[in-house]
Amino acid sequence: MDADIDRLRDEILASLAAAGDLAALEAVRISALGRKGRVTELTKSLGALPPEQRREVGQRVNVLKREIEAALATRAAELEASALERRLAAERIDITLPARERPQGRIHPVSQVAEEIAAIFADMGFAVAEGPDVEDDFHNFTALNFPPEHPARLMHDTFFLEATQDGQPLLLRTHTSPVQIRHMMAGPPPYRVIAPGRTYRCDSDMTHTPMFHQVEGLMIGRDVHMGHLKGCLIDFVHAFFERPDIKVRFRPSFFPFTEPSAEVDIGCRRGRDELVVGEGADWLEILGCGMVHPNVIRAVGLDPEDWQGFAFGMGIDRVAMLKYGIPDLRTFFEADLRWLRHYGFLPLDVPTTYAGLSR
Fold first, then answer.
1. pTM score, two decimals?
2. Cα dist. 299→146, 269, 306, 310 in Å?
3. Domain 109-343 belongs in CATH node 3.40.50.11890
4. Which of 140, 235, 238, 294 is 20 to 30 A from 169, comparing alpha carbons?
C-alpha cells in the first residue's frame, strides 16, 4: 500500500510540474483531488482496510493531499506570474514614443500669415475688426472719398450684384477699408484696429486672383502724425520678415482715402529665377499707406480739426508669397494637398512675437 501511495504521489507531482498553463493545472487538480480523482478514490477505499491498518494509511493519504495542495498552490503562483509577464510584454507601452500620430492636416499659408500679422500689430495695441463681404456703395466708395467717376466703380473692376439697397446696387467689397468706416461709425474715437479679410476684384494672373486677402490698419487720435505711421510700418516689416536689417523707404503716391499718401518699398535682390528680400540694391513695393483724408473723417461724423490718423493696407497673399517663396498666387486656391503639405503649417505652430513667427 505504501508503494502505491508513493507511486501516486510521484505521478501527480510530475503532472503538476509539467502543466504549462492554469487550464492544464486545473485538469491535474481534478484528476487528483476531484470527486472522482485518484486521491479521492484512495480515501474512499480506506473503509475496506483492517482497523489497525486504516489509521496508518489514512495518515499517509492526508499527508499526500496536503503535499499535492501545496504543490498546486506553488505551481499556480508560478503560472500566474508567467502569464502576467507575457501579458505585460505583449501590452507594453513605449512612453518614449509620441502618444498619437502627428496631425496630418496643415494650416494654409494665408491663415498662418494673417495670424502672424495680427500677432505683430497686437503687440502695438491694435485690435482686430471685421465686416461683411457684401457691401454698399457708401461704405465701399463714397465714405472713402472715391469720386463718382472713379474707375474702381466701373463694372470691369468691381463685382456688382443684382441685389440693391436704397436704390443702389450691392457689391463684393474691393478692399477691407469699409470695415474701418463701420468701426468708426460704431463708436467714439480713438481707434486702433486692423481689418483682415477676403476682397474681390475682376483680375486674374500669376500675381492677381478674383478673390484675395487683405489686411488694412487704422489709427485715429488727436496727435497722430506721419512719423507714427512710418515707425509703425518699419517695425512691422522688421518683425514680419524677422530681419532687422531690411531697408524700408516711403514713396509719394495717391489714394483717394489718404492725403498725403505713400507706397512702402523694401530692399531686395532680383536674380534670374529668384527674389531675395533684405539684400541687394533693388526695391519691391509691398503696401500702401497715408494719413487719413479729412473727407473720410467727416464722412463718419468726426471733425478733422480735432481728429487725425493714418491708414495702411497690404495683400496677405502677396506678403505670404514673399516670405515663404511661393511663386504663383493661383496655387493658393487650387486645393492641392501636396502643395498644402509642402507650404502648410502644423496646427500647433501658433505664431507669437516672443516665441517666433515662423518655426
1. 0.68
2. 12, 42, 14, 16
3. no
4. 294
